[in-house]
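Lab channel / #folding
Pinned by the channel admin:
"Please post every new chain as: sequence first, then the structure tokens as a reply. Keep commentary short and put observations after the output so the thread stays searchable."

First post following the new format, from NK:
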Amino acid sequence: MPPRPLDIDSVQAFVLTVDLASFTRAAEALETSQAGISLRLKRLEDRLGCRLVDRTPRNVRASAQGERFLPAARGLLAAHDRAMADLVAAPPARLVLGISDHVAGPDLPALLHRLGLAGSGLVVEVRIAPSRDLMRLFDAGELDAAIVRSEDPAEAGGTVLAEERLAWFAAPGFRFEPGAPLPMATLAGPCNVRAAALRALNAADLPWCETFVGGGVLAVGAAVGA
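Reply from TO:
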């Protein structure tokens, strides 16, 4: 069975009592009572099995055993202070998450809630960009995780979170005029969704024209609803 560790408060009380040569001043430094200092010293002496302090009516000093223990006690306190400083100074863990601009729409708050990151102690950094850019950043080690859209999930790797269905959207008052070019609000290329839409229009031999090119799904959605 490993030996019980020393109580750091008791070691601190011993060192201060010797350095200040006074139970009273040690108690003031630690904001406790003389009885509290005496109790800590007794606990430490009982643990080590020897007397550490000689006390006379006019003086307090380390005993012979206390002098032998004093360097180790100072080293223990210094190591404790370094450990505490490292812990306090350590920055919180950071999670860098990439989210495709196809995913980062109105449902983004609900998506972040589903990840369960609130109260995790993590600093969460979210980067919204096209899927191709996020995959490049992920491969370069600049992202911890990425939620992207892929035409070929097997090639992209990772876990399939959902499968989407492409659909056409228009403003409630939109009226299509047969024969007239279909006005299109699209994302800037290269974009797989844009390419799929144009392939469908060309296959159906429907004329079209771009009237709005947005830098993100929210911008395109706003243009469609305008």
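NK: The chain has a mean pLDDT of 82.
TO: also worth noting, The chain has three domains: 8-89, 94-156, 182-225.
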